[in-house]
Structures are given as C-alpha cells and as structure tokens.
Amino acid sequence: MALATRYAYSHRLLHWLIAGLVICSLASGMTLGWLGFDGLVERFGTAATNFLYRYHKTFGLLILGLMMLRLIIRLVKGKPAYAEPLPTFHRVASSIVHTLLYLLLFIMPLLGWLATDIGDFPVEFFGSHLPGLIAKNQALSERLYQWHGRVGWAILVLALIHISAALYHWCIRRDGVMQRMSLFPRRDI
To answer: How do residues 138-151 score in pLDDT, each as one tens digit?
Structure first.
C-alpha cells in the first residue's frame, strides 16, 4: 500500500487520542447519568464524585479542542485514497457515519458546556474553572442535559458501527482500510 493511502500521522494520532477520550467520556457520562450526583456520592464519596465530574467536563473540552484541530488537519491535508476502491454502499455508509461522528463530536461537548454553564455549575478544565458566559436558566439547562445524553447514545451507536466496519475490513475483507488510520507501519495480514 502506498503512503498516499494513509492519513497524515497527526490525523491518525488525533483519531486514537480522541477515541480514547470519547470512551472515557461516554463511560463517565453514563455513570453520571445512571447514578446521578447523589447516587455517586452515596457509592463513592464526595471526592470521587467531584473527580468524575471534573474529568468528564475536562475530557469533553479536550475532545472539542482536538476535534477542531483534527478538522483543520483534515481540511489542509485532505483525505487519502483507498488502496482498493470501496463498493458504493461502503463508501456511502462510511461517509454518513464519519460525517455524523464529526458533527456529534462537536455538538456533544458544546451541549455539555452550555448545560453546565446555564445550570450554574462550574465548567472545569482540569483544575481551573472557566468563566460563565450565559445567563442562568435551570429549565433550559435540564433540556440541554437531556440532549447531551441523547447525543451520547447516538455517538455510542455510531462508534459501534464504525468499529464493526473497521473490524470487517481488517478481518474479513483484508483490503487495507484499517491501515489508513493505523499508527503502526503496514503489516500484511
């Protein structure tokens, strides 16, 4: 496979970094959603609960910033050609899933940021509190949190489709698609 069939290394590195942050964010977000603040405090204590909230918010802001960087790199460096042309259905499905993932990975942290700020909770990035930007509105905050959760489920579904397709290309088709995003040198399978 020619080098031109792979994404730029910076893009590949961001893909895997963002994937790890998304896994952590979805896991912590689902825990927060299922147990709520009081349930978390009851099971794990105040310090662990505050830690989970702080890093859920931090990871969301990191995802937002890294997605901006990833989009810029994608626009500048472009999208590499496939080693083997994909069937039309695969190309269309891939395009839809990738576009939705990009879009939702921007929307999700923005919804969380707005919901947190409007709900009069601290927007934290590691240990720092970011300044509030919007007037407080508890009803709107609750609606935004609901949408934040729904988008999280949509991201989970899309990520599972994405991972399933990647495994299909790697294990069944063996068509080099996985090498486009691999951090490692090409290995014939």
So the answer is: 999 999 999 999 99
Tokens of 89: 């259905």
**How far is residue 174 from each of residues 40, 84, 119, 166, 170, measured CA to CA in Å?**
44, 10, 49, 10, 5
pLDDT of the residue at 187 = 59
Round to whole Å and give the CA distance between 22 and 63: 7
CATH for the 3-180 domain, from 1.20.950, 3.40.50, 1.10.1660, 1.10.10: 1.20.950
pTM: 0.90
Burial degree of 73 (CB within 10 A; 0-12, 13-18, 19+): middle
